[in-house]
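Example S7 (structure tokens).
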């Protein structure tokens, strides 16, 4: 009887620990209450699988992919640099300054989870302030390696 209770308590403890670890690395889409802390909505996120398909099927001139972090470039991406630094934010503004406001733009960082990333929020906000209406954020809730590279999606170096 004592063994059964001990096993049940261990199971509950493991379940609680597992759910805490899982929640720490999920995207705002998986936790809608977190969306209120971000300048984007679930509609503004693009899944890695979707973008990988677009890279394969869409001519590059129809989609601008911007790496606004310090991670490796995915295929077709223009490397801007860490958007939380003034020089790279200026580079971001300069890169998009001549584009039509309805241009399809995808930004990503992938250095760490959204909750810790210093680059995605300032870049997304700035593009919206500039009047861009078709800005998407690549949904990399953990990081580029976990959510893109490990799945075999294309990198610039491939």
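Recovered sequence:
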């Amino acid at each position: 009887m004592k063994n059964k209770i001990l096993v049940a308590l261990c199971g509950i403890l493991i379940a609680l620990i597992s759910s805490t670890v899982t929640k720490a690395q999920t995207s705002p889409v998986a936790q809608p209450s977190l969306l209120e802390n971000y300048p984007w909505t679930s509609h503004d996120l693009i899944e890695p699988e979707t973008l990988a398909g677009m890279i394969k099927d869409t001519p590059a001139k129809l989609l601008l992919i911007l790496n606004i972090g310090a991670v490796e470039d995915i295929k077709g991406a223009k490397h801007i640099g860490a958007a939380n630094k003034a020089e790279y934010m200026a580079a971001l503004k300069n890169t998009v300054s001549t584009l039509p406001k309805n241009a399809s733009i995808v930004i990503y960082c992938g250095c760490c989870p959204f909750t810790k990333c210093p680059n995605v929020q300032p870049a997304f906000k700035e593009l919206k302030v500039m009047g861009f209406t078709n800005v998407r954020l690549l949904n990399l809730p953990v990081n580029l390696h976990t959510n893109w590279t490990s799945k075999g999606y294309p990198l610039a170096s491939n």
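Notes on this example. Helices lie at 2-24, 48-57, 86-96, 120-129, 144-147.
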